[in-house]
Request: fold
Amino acid sequence: MKTFIIEIEGLVQGVGFRPFVYKLASSMGLEGTVENLNTGVRVMVNSNNESLEKFVEKIWSESPLQSQVESVVVNEVSPLHFTGFSIITSRNLSEEITRISPDIAVCDDCLADMEQQEHRINYPLINCTNCGPRFSIIKGVPYDRPLTTMDRFIMCKRCSAEYNDPNDRRFHAQPVACNNCGPVYSMLIGDSEIKGINDIIKRTAEIIERGGIVALKGTGGYHLVCDAMNEDAVASLRKAKEREGKPFAVMCRNIDCVKEITHPGKEEIETLQSWQKPVLIIEGKNIVAPSVSNGLRTVGVILPYMPFHYLLFRKLNTGVIVFTSANLAEEPVITDDEEARIKLWSIAEAVVKYNREIYNRTDDSVGRYIAGAVRIMRRSRGYAPTPVKIDFNGEGVFGAGAELTNCFGMGKGRNLILSQHIGDLKNAPTSEFYRTAYGRFAEMFRFRPEIVARDMHPDYLSSVFAEKLARESGIPVTVVQHHHAHIASCMAENGINRKVIGVAMDGVGLGNDGKIWGGEILIADLCDFNRIIHFDYVPVAGGDYASQEPWRSGLSWLIKYADEDAISDDLPLIKNTGHEKFKLYTEIVEKEINTSYYSSAGRLFDAVAAITGLSHTSKFHSEAPMRLEAAIQKGITTNYGYDINGEIISFGKTIREIVHDLKSGISPGEISARFHNTVARAIVDGITYVSEISAITDIVLSGGSFQNRYLTEKIISELSSKKFYVYYHHNIPMNDGGLALGQVAVAAARRDAGMI
Ligand code: ZN
Ligand code: ZN
Ligand code: FE
Reply:
C-alpha cells in the first residue's frame, strides 16, 4: 500500500465534486481524504498501483456533468495513515485561482424531490450538489456556505443530516435548504403581502392568464413576465419598459412547446436543454403575439431553469410567457428587492420575490445557431465566470472591454476570467455595476493587475477606468485598437498565435487614423496589425445619433453614391425624411458639421435598411441591421456590383443598383438578399486578394456584424470552398462582449515580446 496525492484542476468546486470522489473512493474501498483548495481539489489516498490507475481513470470519466476536469496530477508521498475516507472542510491555502461555478439550472432529481420529499414538497428553491445557485450567491472563496448569501439561514436537522451525509445528493451542497429552514417566496400585490408558495403560484398564474404583468425574482436578477400569446399584455409591457422595439425572450413550458412556436434544430434543442439554459434566438413560426419579436422573424426562447418556473407552468394554461429582464431603459437588471418594489410597481401588478440576496447580478445568456453550431452572443448566467482557456500567460493583465455590451477580463495564468455581461457603460448605474464587479472579481480571483489594456477610444468609460486603475497601481497601460482586439479575441479563443487575415465587420470602433472603423481586412498577429483593405469612408453627421438614426447613414450613402436625379420621392427614405430635411442634412454633411467618417459595416447596413424603408430610427442597438437580415427573401443568389480599388472596397455601384431596384418595384426582401450576397462576395474577394499577396490562408472572423447568420454562413461557406481555414467564435461573443479577451491577448503578447 502506498500513499498518493492527487491534485485535480478545472471546474471542480461547487459542482458536487468532493462527494463524487468520496463515493468513488468508498465504493473501491480506498482510504484517504478529499478537500477543496484554491487551486482545485486535492485527494490523498492509500492504494496499490492498480487501484490507483482505476481510480484516476474514473475521476476523468465519471465526474459530475457540470464539472470540467482539466488536469489530474498524481504524486507518491511518504506513507500516511487514514481511517476510512473523509472529506476535509475547506481551508484557504494558496493565492492561486479558484474556479467559481456558474449558476446551474435545477436538475431532474430535484424536480422529482419537489413532488416526493416530505420537507421539500413544492419547495421553490430546492437544489443539490448538481444544481442550484452558485456564482449569484457567492461573496468570497473558498465556496462554503458562510461566504454565500445563504449564510443567514440555519439548516434544520434534516437538511443538516443530508449536508453531512457523504452518501446523500446534498452532501456539502452549500445552498441546501427546505420548506422548514430555507429562504421563502413572498408576493407583493398593492399593500398586501401573500405568503405560502401554493397561493403565490396560484395568484401569479391568475394575473398572467388575465393579461397582467408580474415581476419575478430570478437567479441573477428580476424578470417581467406575461402571457406571450396575449398581444395586449405584451404591447403594454413593451410600453411600460420604455423600449418599444427590442425583441422579448419567451419561456416555453417544455421543448414540445418550443417546437410549436419555432423551428429548432438538433443543436439548438440540445443547448436549450443544457444545464446552462441560455436564451436561443431561433427562426419563429409567427405564433406568439406579434409584439414579442416586433417584426423580426426570430424568437428568443428559453426553457424553465428555476423550480419556481416549473411550479408556475403547472398552473398556467398558456405554454409560453414573455420572459424579459426587469430593467428600465439601459439600466442593469434589478437584483434588489426594495428597488424592485419601488421601480417595478408601475409596470407590474405584483412582485414575486424570495428572501435570499442576489449578490452577483447575471443576465440570461443568449446564443444563436450560426454556421453549424450554437454561438454565445451574451455570456452571463450559466457561463460566467467559468474561466476561458488561453494558451499564453495572461497573469496580471486586465482587459477593460468596450463601451457597449461590456464585459471585462482578467488574466490568471493560462486562464482568462471574463466577467458576466455588464452592459452599456454610458448609463450611470451600469458603470457603477462595472466598478463594483471589478472589485469583487479582483478579490474573488485574487487578481493583482500588472498591465492594463484598453480600447483606443479615450472617452469610453472602460478606458477612463483603466487609466485610473493604472495610475493608482503604478502599472503600464497598453492601447488596443478596437478591431485588432476583436480579431485577437477570436484568435485567442481558437488558440492561434501566428499571422492571420482578420476580417472585422462591426458597428463602430475608433481607428488609428481618428476615423471610425468597422469594415476591415487586416493582416494581424497578437502584437500588431496592418489594415490592408477597408470599406470606403462615408461622412455621417450627428455624432452619437448616427447609430440611433439609420436615416442619417441612408442619406449619407445616397449623397455620396447615388445619381442626383435618382434621389426623389419614389425612394422610401426620401419620402420618410422629406425634401427639406434631406437638403438640410446634405448641407450639414458638406460643411462637415458634427460629422465623422465611417468605414463601418454596421453603418453600411444601417444605410441600406434606411434606403429600403425597413428601418428609419433605431429603438435598440443594431435594430436596423437586424431588420435588414429579417427581411431577406430566401433563394436569391444574385448580387449587386461593387468595386475593390487597391485598399478600398466601394459599395457605390451597390447603392446605385439598389436605388434602381427600388424604383422598379423590387421588394425590400429581394434587395436585402442581394445586398447581403454582395457584401459577402466583396469580403471574400478582398480576402482572396490579401491571401494572394501574403500567402496567408488562416481567416479570422470577428465583430458584431458576424451575429448576422445569413452573412456569416455565406462568407464561411464561400471561404471553405476556396480552401481557406476559417476561425470563428464559439463561446466568446463576437460582439463587444468578447473584446476584453482580445485586449488581454494583445497585452500579454506585447509583454512577451518585450514591447511593454
Ligand atoms: Zn439538484
Ligand atoms: Zn431544512
Ligand atoms: Fe466592436
In short: The domain at 2-87 is CATH 3.30.70.100 (Alpha-Beta Plaits). The pocket of zinc ion (ligand 2) is lined by residues 119, 155-156, 158-159, 177-178, 180-181 (CB under 6 Å). The radius of gyration is 27 Å. Residues 105 and 305 are 5 Å apart (CA to CA).
